[in-house]
Specification:
Elements lengths: L4 H11 L5 H8 L4 H8 L5 H7 L5 H23 L2 H8 L3 H16 L4 H6 L9 H8 L4 H10 L5 H10 L5 H19 L5 H27 L1 H7 L15 H7 L5 H8 L5 H14 L3 H21 L5 H25 L4 H6 L6
Helix pairs in contact: 1-19, 4-5, 5-19, 7-12, 10-11, 12-13, 13-18, 16-17, 17-18, 18-19
Length: 353
């Protein structure tokens, strides 16, 4: 895996600087944002914090510093790898490009404010923010699709096909079409029997399972609404998941969410779905299932630097672990700002094995 040697060596050094969970828990005990900012200047976040302090303060300073750190993940991976390795790593960020385009089109569909649309942008994408901003400034969805075509973004193809076949377009139709196109592309492009493609196929399979399970649980939980739509569940499923379409269609015949989760409890996602079901019974939020599936994804990704230390496992794992640490620091900052109890802040930290 010589293509990865230089970059992986650099990222191993970065991984050694990831803050232990005990340090993050110590941050949760701090009583002011200023003390948190001071503590962060004694870590690898010093440069980003000091830069953010030139134009922001308080929680905004921490948020801006963390946004800069997210940008750094992309720029570092682009600098450390080249050739085929760089092309494979670029694929890691395609999902974020799609999510950013979906955020824009969803926001325009619901007439959201420009600042609310742009606030949802992920820095972990390959489409320049200036380009995303121009698309977001469109007066409506049709104009946004036109700009996506002009910029020759890959998402233009499914959007134009959808626009030609249906009028008017709803937000849900647009998002579903993009998701189905995306996973079909992934399936066709990762057909080789290399270690990199196998790992990436598993990565996208988990993403597909999250998408399909979300759709399945929402449709079953609101079966009357689905019946009124007159649709077929198969129309709402994407390709490339570990859970087969046959299984998903069979699960759709069950009466409630709990029955579906009990059926899946023996699989690879079992422990996470059981925890999600427990949380769902407490609060009624279907989002608990995606949250737990995301934890499964994080744990799997964080294991890759150990299980696949010579190839794409290192950059995949690093990006996930670093993103989780950034998420934790932002959560701690929000908790300290809001005067949450330290125990509550600690309880909601993501913990990488």
């Amino acid at each position: 895996m010589a293509l990865y040697d230089y970059g992986n060596t650099r990222l191993r050094a970065r991984l050694s600087k990831i803050l232990p969970i005990e340090v993050l828990e110590g941050f949760a005990e701090l009583t002011s944002i200023d003390s948190l900012i001071s503590a962060l200047t004694k870590t690898s976040y010093q440069e980003s914090i000091e830069y953010a302090l030139t134009y922001a303060h308080g929680y905004t300073c921490v948020a801006e510093a963390m946004r800069k750190e997210l940008h750094n993940i992309v720029s570092d991976l682009n600098r450390f790898y080249e050739g085929v390795a760089r092309q494979k790593i670029d694929e890691l960020f395609r999902r974020n490009d799609l999510l950013n385009i979906k955020s824009i089109l969803r926001g325009l569909s619901h007439e959201a404010r420009l600042e609310d649309i742009t606030a949802a942008f992920s820095p972990l994408g390959t489409i320049p923010e200036a380009m995303l901003l121009q698309i977001a400034k469109s007066k409506d969805v049709d104009e946004a699709i036109g700009r996506i075509v002009v910029y020759q973004l890959p998402e233009a193809k499914p959007l134009m096909a959808l626009k030609a076949g249906r009028q008017p377009l709803t937000s849900s139709q647009i998002e579903l079409a993009l998701e189905k196109w995306y996973f079909a592309q992934v399936q066709s492009e990762l057909s080789r029997r290399t270690e990199e493609d196998r790992i990436l196929r598993e990565y996208y399979a988990i993403e597909a399972d999250i998408t399909n399970l979300n759709n399945l649980l929402r449709l079953v939980n609101a079966s009357r609404d689905f019946e009124e739509l007159g649709g077929d569940l198969q129309d709402y499923l994407v390709e490339a998941g570990n859970i087969s379409k046959k299984t998903l269609l069979s699960l759709a015949k069950m009466e409630d969410v709990e029955s579906i989760i009990h059926h899946l409890a023996g699989g690879k996602y079992g422990p996470y779905l059981k925890q999600a079901l427990k949380n769902f019974k407490d609060n009624g939020y279907l989002s608990e299932f995606e949250a737990q599936m995301r934890i499964f994804m994080l744990n799997w990704l964080s294991s890759l630097p150990r299980t696949f230390p010579l190839g794409i496992g290192i950059p995949l794992g690093y990006a996930a672990i670093k993103r989780s640490e950034i998420r934790n620091i932002r959560w701690i900052a929000k908790g300290v700002q809001s005067c949450f109890e330290p125990a509550d802040i600690k309880a909601n930290l993501e913990r990488v094995p």
